[in-house]
Structure formats: C-alpha cells, structure tokens
Design goal:
Helix content is 28%, strand content 19%. By secondary structure, the protein is α/β, with parallel strands linked by helices. The chain starts with a strand and ends in a 10-residue tail after the last helix. The mean pLDDT is 92.
C-alpha cells in the first residue's frame, strides 16, 4: 500500500521542525496532525509565518508530540499490509516523518524503512499548485499517482 506524505515545517534548513504531517493512502484513508509543542513561531521563516501558519486548522487536529506519535502509529498499524511512503520532498518530509514514527527505538514493522521519491514515479495527472497545507498537498500528490483520487479525496 502506498501512502503519500506531505509535511509543513518551520524552515528549509537542517534545523527544520515539524509543524504538521499528513498521509493519504492510495485507497483514500487519511491522517493529519498538527504539533503543538515541538516548534515556536520564532523558529519559522517569513514564508512559513505568512503562508503556512495561517492555514493551520488547530482544534482536534493539534496535538502534543507524544499524542501525535501515538495517533500516527495507530494509523500506520491499521494497515494489514506493507506500507510504502511516497513523498516529493524526501530530504525534509521523510526525515520529519521518521522523527515522529520512530518510537523508543522501534520502527513500525509494516512500514518500509526508506521512502519512494515521488519525482521518480510516472504521474497519471498533473496535480495542482500546492496550497502549503500538509493534508491538501498530500491529496494533490496522491491524486497525481492514483487513478480516480482527486485533490479533494476519493470521488
């Protein structure tokens, strides 16, 4: 099963901190979380402050990192097959996904331990301009590679 990953983070540098993470499965299931306690606005680039932060949903989507990790691991464990993570930004999104998915020395046993770079796949559609919201962007990425999946989710 392929899961399409997108993350929003504080800045384009090695010091990037995860703000939000989304996964969209090729069969349509979705996961989205925003972290409450692992970053500060002062950590963010001007672009992130102006474009990304105003789009955060907050509310029940926003969790402390410990709860976000538990929620992510429960979502991943809900698949009874091997999972391949696909991302168009492995140098950032994959690293941030790993930080959240790696729990006390354990990696989720059904998740392949390396990403698939979406830029190496053959798209079935052009996608669209990313809005810089993790879930909306993950939907666009998934829609580019899964027949019938649109940026709004399953038809």
């Amino acid at each position: 099963m392929r899961l399409f990953l997108d993350c929003e983070f504080t800045q384009l540098s090695a010091a990037a901190k995860l703000i939000s993470l989304a996964l969209v499965a090729e069969e349509g299931r979705e996961f989205y979380v925003e972290l409450l306690d692992d970053w500060r606005e002062e950590d963010c680039s001007n672009f992130v402050k102006e474009i990304v932060l105003p789009q955060l949903w907050g509310g029940s989507w926003a969790l402390p990192i410990t709860e976000a990790r538990i929620s992510l691991l429960e979502f991943l464990a809900s698949f009874d097959c091997a999972i391949e993570i696909v991302t168009d930004a492995p140098q950032f999104d994959w690293e941030l996904f790993c930080e959240l998915a790696y729990d006390n020395g354990y990696w989720p046993r059904n998740v392949r331990n390396y990403p698939t770079d979406a830029t190496t796949l053959s798209p079935v559609s052009d996608g669209g301009e990313p809005p810089h919201h993790a879930l909306l962007d993950a939907r666009i990425i998934a829609g580019m590679f899964v027949e019938g999946l649109t940026a709004e989710g399953l038809p």
